């Protein structure tokens, strides 16, 4: 996870998990929303496609809902990057509706398609974020505004 790697590189403490927060805990230094076994796709997708569902219903949309609930206590403005107007859940590389993901058609196979501009997408293949997303996350942590105060300058500039 990006946050843990950056924290370790700078010798910072790990962020508390959203699900382990206690009432009134100070979250202004950050929180992680990651959950073991979480998927990018909602449980409904697996059920509709008659696929074995994941062991948990902690999909990306659930994690985003956690963030939306917590955001007012973290910052006061609505400015984001995470791209302009895009389909948040649609994968850049894959095949099938509604999310461009089919567990039988992998990214890179002859049947899959790739979006025109991956830098305008968050999700790469239904399981991984795009490089543009990882860069923006790391940049926000290292240079701000996701770290308060911003971390010291890294050895290289994050593009």
From TrEMBL:
InterPro entries found in the cross-reference section: SGNH_hydro_sf
Gene3D superfamilies assigned: SGNH hydrolase
Top-level division of the source organism's lineage: Eukaryota
Family under the similarity heading: Belongs to the 'GDSL' lipolytic enzyme family.
Listed name of the protein: GDSL esterase/lipase At3g48460
The organism of origin for this protein: Cajanus cajan (Pigeon pea)
Phylogenetic lineage: Eukaryota, Viridiplantae, Streptophyta, Embryophyta, Tracheophyta
